[in-house]
Specification:
single chain; mainly alpha; two-stranded antiparallel sheet; 13 helices; 2 strands
């Protein structure tokens, strides 16, 4: 069963009691001596079931204890090369695709399809056209990734995106010094984002840095900030004092405000990706 998350969300005709009845019913079937001979359950979800489902009831076995958790990992370099094998593209374009898609199956599937369409028409893939078409084709993916994050995770993604933007704005310099302390304090949340393939963690000379698994996600998050309403930004910024000091929070507000007001100063998608 794909998108199992839907079974863990209420709607007008499906309340919390219905959810618990369904989940424990599945558990009873899977653990039953007789019925389990004819039933195997394999489900896919955006997060661990323990994070999505109802809280446990004291004195009752967990509703998810018949599942074995397996995290789907991104494609390796070898698998990535095998997927694009036979496509007549330059090594430079292949590297760029790796940068924007990483090993994510959904992003790679979209990239491979766009390449196939161009090559089938005997056309040489144009980086500008490819980047725009890839952006349009994967908009729903980045939107879903964002919406499946909680408010704290979204704030952490904003901080990573703003760190990526640092030094890229014409005639505007800012420093987010000390942001790495926030990341270390929120290690559990950062690990969760990494395990879900949204960000990458690198360590060099004892210093840990974070970046987006897909470089395009960073650009998307910055555009998300720019497309927010003033009310939405103010609401999000209310949580800054819980993450950082007063001076740092004020500096971050100023950076976000400047980006929001100067939409034309943010690098284009090709400039962000380094394709120009």
């Amino acid at each position: 069963v794909d998108d199992y998350d839907a079974a863990l969300r209420t709607n007008d005709n499906y309340n919390k009691a219905d959810i618990e009845a369904f989940l424990y019913g599945c558990r009873n079937l899977a653990n039953s001596e007789q019925e389990s001979k004819y039933l195997s359950m394999i489900v896919a979800s955006s997060r661990r079931l323990t994070e999505l489902g109802p809280p446990l009831t004291p004195g009752q076995s967990p509703w998810y204890n018949h599942y074995l958790f397996l995290r789907l990992k991104p494609f390796t370099d070898r698998e990535f090369d095998a997927l694009l094998a036979g496509m007549l593209i330059t090594p430079a374009l292949r590297d760029k695709i790796r940068e924007i898609a990483d090993g994510n199956p959904t992003l790679l599937q979209n990239a491979a399809y766009l390449l196939y369409q161009e090559l089938r028409g005997n056309r040489i893939p144009d980086p500008l056209t490819f980047a725009r078409e890839f952006q349009n084709a994967t908009e729903h993916f980045f939107q879903a990734t964002w919406e499946l994050c909680n408010e704290l995770e979204q704030t952490l993604l904003m901080l990573i995106a703003l760190c990526s933007l640092e030094g890229r704005l014409a005639n505007k310099r800012y420093s987010l010094k000390g942001i790495e302390n926030i990341f270390s304090q929120k290690e559990l949340e950062m690990n969760a984002l990494e395990n879900r393939g949204i960000i990458k963690r690198e360590e060099e000379a004892g210093k840990i840095t974070y970046s987006f698994a897909s470089s395009l996600m960073g650009w998307w998050v910055v555009k998300k900030i720019q497309n927010s309403t003033e009310t939405e930004l103010q609401q999000r910024q209310r949580g800054f004092p819980n993450l950082m000091g007063k001076k740092q929070a004020e500096n971050l507000r100023n950076v976000i405000s400047w980006i929001w007001k100067h939409k034309d100063k943010v690098p284009t998608i090709l400039e962000w990706l380094g394709w120009l």
